[in-house]
Automatic annotation (TrEMBL):
Lineage of producing organism: Eukaryota, Viridiplantae, Streptophyta, Embryophyta, Tracheophyta
Family: Belongs to the JARID1 histone demethylase family.
Domain of life: Eukaryota
Domain JmjC per the UniProt entry, residue ranges: 141-340
Pfam family membership, one: Cupin_8
InterPro entries: Cupin_8 (IPR041667), JmjC_dom (IPR003347), RmlC-like_jellyroll (IPR014710)
Low complexity: bias regions: 21-35
The protein, known as: JmjC domain-containing protein
Length: 364
């Protein structure tokens, strides 16, 4: 079965024109198809939406946005949102919605799914905390509220960008369900996950660095069930500068399916442990790498797995907007569910020793 699935990985990438180089062959790494101008709705539907193929569109698609010139400045957003309260997500290390050591099992390999501590602050305070974020200090701040926040708490600046992406809306036959604003610095990292949305992701300041895997490579990410936890804040008398975050298990408990793979381990020892535990990822074809620069927009088809890191712009921030369009639960979704139901010996035999503690958590 593993051999057949590996053949599927290569054939699927070949069909999409993306190639499947080995992890060590960085020179042959596939590029996401790029367009110098936004596509017509027909071309977008035919060449990208229907086959599920990403697309990177140049800055020509956003030059008319007021945000393109205003948001990268040092003070525009702070002045425009001075009296606005926003939701700020806080973690010790910049990894929200990611795996973390299980707080109830110190010293073990058991992990949990950790969500950020969310605090309402005025926007100038949010920007100050984001710019000053550092894992060494134990707090990394990221504005990543994913509830249509650009048209909600950031409505004062929503008019600086298009309300929707016209060529995408026409091709997809609908308007976006949510439009979100993201503001962070270099320390915020989003772990591998997939969304049930067609995503148009636009960077306004700085850069976003994506690692991409198509839905056919689901098995490579070792999606397991993890108990949910969240960070809570403990403050000393010094206030926010003495903020400490503690991870607590959620009550009542709930289970979250999540990828077990960290594609960018911090040390050679951690890399060796990851490669030993998750060989389908580290021995498979290299992930597709894509950097989205200021002004550019990435079309990310629904169900594609993506890991995201970022680099700040001249204002010290990475600022992005994304448009989520409802996915079509069509034959591609049925194929994905069928593929997900298949068992591969490597994934099901338990031979990856580091997973043993993770699998025990299903009974928590």
């Amino acid at each position: 079965m593993e051999r057949a699935v590996r053949e599927l990985w290569a054939e699927s990438r070949d069909l999409l024109g993306l190639g499947s180089p080995s992890p060590d062959d960085t020179a042959a790494a596939a590029d996401v198809p790029r367009a110098d101008m936004p596509p017509t709705p027909l071309a977008f539907l035919r060449d990208h939406v229907s086959p599920g193929r990403p697309l990177l569109v140049s800055a020509a698609g956003t030059r008319h946005w007021p945000a393109a010139s205003l948001w990268p400045t040092a003070s525009y957003l702070t002045d425009a949102l001075r009296s606005t309260a926003v939701s700020l997500h806080l973690t010790p290390d910049g990894r929200a919605d990611a795996l973390a050591p299980h707080p109830g099992r110190p010293g073990s390999s058991s992990r949990c799914f950790a969500s950020a501590h969310v605090r309402r602050v005025d926007f100038p305070t949010a920007v100050r905390l984001i710019r000053g974020s550092d894992p060494v200090a134990g707090v990394v701040a990221y504005a990543q509220q994913q509830d249509d926040c650009l048209r909600g708490e950031y409505a004062a600046v929503a008019g600086d960008v298009d309300a929707h992406v016209p060529w995408a809306s026409e091709a997809l036959g609908c308007l976006p369900e949510a439009v979100n604003l993201w503001i962070g610095n270099a320390h915020s990292v989003t772990s591998f996950h997939k969304d049930h949305y067609d995503n148009i992701y636009v960077v306004v300041s700085g850069e976003k660095h994506f690692l991409l895997l198509p839905p056919t490579e689901h098995h490579r990410l070792y999606v397991r069930d993890y108990p949910a936890a969240h960070y809570v804040a403990e403050e000393d008398a010094g206030g926010e500068h003495q903020l400490r975050l503690k991870l607590e298990m959620e009550e009542p408990g709930r289970i979250v399916p999540w990828s077990s793979v960290d594609p960018c381990p911090a040390s050679p020892e951690e890399m060796a442990a990851q490669a030993s535990s998750f060989p389908l990822y580290f021995d498979g074809p290299a992930p597709i790498r894509c950097t989205v620069r200021a002004g550019e927009m990435l079309y990310l088809p629904s169900m594609w797995f993506h890991h995201v890191s970022q680099s700040p712009g001249p204002n010290g921030l990475t600022v992005a907007v994304n448009y989520w369009y409802d996915m079509q639960f069509d034959i591609k979704y049925a194929y994905f569910n069928f593929l997900r139901s298949l068992e591969i010996d490597d994934c099901s035999s338990g031979k990856a020793g580091a997973l043993e503690g993770d699998l025990e958590e299903k009974n928590d």
